[in-house]
# Entry
Amino acid sequence: MGDRQTRSSRHLQPSRNKKFDKLLNVLIGVVVVLIIITATYVFKWQDDADQAVKDEPAQEEKSGDKEKEVDKEKEDGDKEPTKEEDKDLAVEEDKPSEEVSEPETSQEEQGTPEESTSDNPIVDKVITNKNWQPTPTTQTGQHVSSYDDKSVDWAEKVATVTSATGIDQNNMIIWRMQNNGGPNSAIATVSTNDKSQMYRVSMEWVDNEGWMPVKVEQLNTLEGAY
# Structure
């Protein structure tokens, strides 16, 4: 009985060893496959990393070139003009602009006053102007010359003096306003407030138009002027 069990055990032992060897081979094969897959993945990852390192400097180089081009354009835009360009600009600035010429007018058309001397020692010069016009009047009907400083006729005489001398009424002293030999003729002696300008203005009445200056005498003194 004991011998049979021993022979049976010996007979089963090689079979178990074969199964164990087969399982071991399968496990070894799985491990080898896993190693191969892992190695392939590692090598592929390493190649990708190396390629990325190689590509990065190229991108940086392109970016650097682009920045250089932008800087160059900026420098070109900020570049100061050369001497020749400055000269051309100066010539253009000095070149007179074209203007439309206007026809010349005569002295009478321009209203240029005429000046003459006088035998009177207190008169520096006598001024006349053919283009003087009457001061527009508001008076109607028969004209009566008035020397009342509250009257319309007086105000129009003062306006005529202002027009002929250029002295504003606020800066004017009327030393004398009087008849000048007829009802339609008057003469006024005036000066600026500081007496730096002194005049004697002769005027005549123009029917339906107003008082018109006919002569302005520039005085050097007020003594004997009126």
